[in-house]
Write a structure and sequence with these properties.
transcription (chains A, B); Tetracycline Repressor, domain 2; HTH-type_TetR-like_transc_reg (chains A, B); 2 domains; about 0% strand; homodimer; Transcriptional regulator, TetR family (chains A, B)
Chain lengths: ~220, ~220
């Protein structure tokens, strides 16, 4: 268990250990790449013990996903709130999801690009990153599926599952394109809106057919 | 290196070592689960050496994906052939992909459910399975993206990427629902058609707008 090294004392403003660990990890990933960085190095740079690292994160890859995980949690809360509203027309289900998604993107529009998205080219080669990315993709799909099942009660399971999977795929593609666009990339929300609009359109029409003609 | 055990001699018709390894693996996965089965056990059951196993498969998980990998290779060939045809209207790009996909599903309609799809509930817990599944998902996305970029030359990168990702998501959802439906599940193609139709519809409309009004 490494002891806090002296370098940590050099005038950083006090922040939570979690934030300090995130920043230490980000520095190290930038300096020497993700695969070459160990949890011990991150803890040492942050001036905390390895045990402290594992109090905050389950694994090295978790540090990459902090912003994504926060966005996922925010989306889940927003969709749960939407689901508590009086039942809407099934045809409104996809636009409701879209609104919740774009709301989360806007909330986070001042944030940096999540580290995980800057490492996307590594996803092809780093097994651990792949698995950690798939874990988030599956969580995103599950959040969308649960919400869609509640918003579109008369829709069949296959339509709901495929809509959630298609939407999750388009979201990841949009976020990835945004991250890859470099400085001056503009707003995440604009990328997401363009990426998911055809999914919202296509499944929106499919759900409207299930629901039949409506006056809303 | 295990030697071929006597049990292998008991009257199995001669087949390629690859097929025998697949069947041995399938038996063992069924008997004792995927996580509890080792490469050594598979080789031993098949009556071949561990080295022979690795002549045919890169890892234990590869055995699960044999049918999926064959379908992916078939899809890649079918789409390459479609891309060699004279350039079509951009609005035809999504229907062309759909036709190629459903063609592959039909070709394989007499096959058993791929082992990987029967293990989908394990995907949440088994890291190696997750990574091996993501590898195939990324390959499917890449095949669709390359093909779509060729079929819809004037479409922007973001639309192409998100269409490929959404389509891949819907395909996996459709195939998963088919596998999960149990005996009497019917045709894979019917599930895929229902799962992907809204994606084909939504991105087809988006691409048609890029292309402008057309007489085709």
């Amino acid at each position: 268990m490494a002891r806090p090294p002296a370098r940590n004392a050099v005038g950083r403003p006090r922040r939570s250990s979690r934030r300090v660990l995130e920043e230490a990890a980000a520095e190290l990933f930038l300096e020497q790449g993700y695969p070459g960085t160990t949890v011990d190095q991150i803890a040492s740079r942050a001036g905390v013990s390895r045990n402290t690292f594992f109090n905050y994160f389950g694994s090295k890859s978790d540090v990459l996903w902090v912003d994504v995980d926060a966005a996922l949690a925010g989306l889940e809360r927003a969709l749960a709130a939407a689901g508590d509203a009086p039942a809407t027309d099934v045809a409104d289900a996809m636009p409701s999801l879209q609104a919740a998604l774009l709301g989360i993107a806007e909330e986070r529009s001042n944030g940096a690009v999540p580290w995980a998205l800057t490492q996307i080219e590594l996803m092809d080669t780093a097994w651990e990153l792949q698995a950690s990315g798939l874990e988030r993709l599956l969580r995103l799909q599950a959040v969308l599926r649960v919400s869609l099942a509640r918003l579109a009660v008369r829709a069949d399971e296959l339509t709901i599952r495929s809509a959630a999977a298609a939407l999750a795929g388009a979201i990841v593609a949009g976020a990835g394109a945004w991250a890859a666009a470099g400085v001056g990339r503009g707003e995440l929300g604009d990328y997401l809106r363009r990426a998911i609009a055809p999914v919202v359109d296509g499944y929106g029409r499919a759900l409207a057919r299930i629901d039949g003609p409506s006056s809303s």
